[in-house]
Amino acid sequence: MITTKPLFYYDYRINASQQFLNIDEGSGDIAIQLTPNNYSPEALAHEVSRAMSEQGGQDYICTFDRPTRSFTIFAPNPFDLLIATGQNIGLGAFSVLGFDGGVDLVGLSSYSGNPAGKEFSPQFPLQDYVDFSDFKEFAEANID
User: Fold this and answer.
1) Quick check: helix, strand or coil at residue 33?
2) Reduced to 3 states, what is the DSSP secondary structure of residue 80?
3) pTM for the predicted model, two decimal places
4) How do residues 79-132 score in pLDDT, each as one tens digit?
5) What is the DSSP letter of 142?
6) Considering only CA atoms, which of 28, 66, 63 is closest in space to residue 48?
7) Beta strands of the chain (E only): which ranges?
8) What are the two backbone dihedrals, phi and then psi, of residue 54, each rounded to the nearest 5 degrees?
């Protein structure tokens, strides 16, 4: 029997109008391009880590914290998130990650965003689940 209430996180969508993260590692603006898709929060964190590490000059790690619904981006050396001044300011994905303050974040090697996405919690616990292939019902032929 399932006794806990579920909690669903959603609305982590990267599309053509918000697919860039502009960063500066000390030598100018770098446009990090994310792959458009509908992501789970953990899959989006993985995509951010992949794209930033491949297109940037250091190894980045992005994590998602479920209790706070926030993304954190780490790197070995300081870098800047060019939220307000990046070359792709109109196509930025920062708001999807919860970095929606409207100002550049500079000089650190780790940044945490605000709560991102949406959550849905049904009013009651999930019910027991029986797979359709296991659902057996008594049936008796009736001939008139």
Assistant:
1) strand
2) strand
3) 0.82
4) 999 999 989 988 999 999 999 878 999 999 999 999 999 998 887 766 666 676
5) -
6) 63
7) 8-10, 12-14, 20-24, 29-33, 37-39, 61-65, 70-81, 105-112, 118-120
8) -75, -40
